[in-house]
Predict the 3D structure of the following.
Amino acid sequence: MKKNKTKHVLILSGPTHEYFDPVRFIGNASSGKMGKALAEEALSRDLDVEMISGPVPEANLPNVDASSPSNSSSKENATRTSRLHIKNITSAEEMLAAAQAKFAEADIILFAAAVADFQPLGKSDKKVSKVGLSSEALAKEGKNLTLELKATPDIAATLCANKRDDQVSIGFALQTHDGEAKAKEKLEKKNLDGIVLNTPATLGAETGLFTWINSDGVDAWGTLTKADCAKRIMAKAICL
């Protein structure tokens, strides 16, 4: 780690939901489990954790008890609880704004969120309805729904453009093909210190196939539980 001691960890986790009407959205299948594992690992190392989470089930948010040794006292558990702060957001723009507010005080930033790459250009204030027609009838009448999309903000690139030398940032690259090449491109483009490559099979799962990539090269970690992957990521972050 570039400082003598690391105290503050900022974790971005979960999906973002980009609504095009009051009940429908564009999103992805991110479960938040990787962010949860990272937060619990950071807490087990007695680090302060600021977590910004997209919409995930309560069970996929950090469990302070899970980060505590079995012989921990109630006072020690209370201390860990006080070291965890979670802010819930919905959209990419909300996640960026929340992260910007906490970025300067962070020693380590972990970009585990699977941010939707696009958002609707406009949002209807009323539910878009089929009005009782079948898909075939809608198509026949030329009433297929067309959504115009725009890019969401690139959160990691925006934040890390002004990253200090004493901050460490680690991202994730979930790829279906050309994984290493695309991950290396993201590593440089987003000004990250390291990136973890994984695959769509990781979404919602307890395990995944992970590869660590940084300026020193490529380290294939193989199949790991997300908890074990989080241990490796935190060890790397503290040593960088």
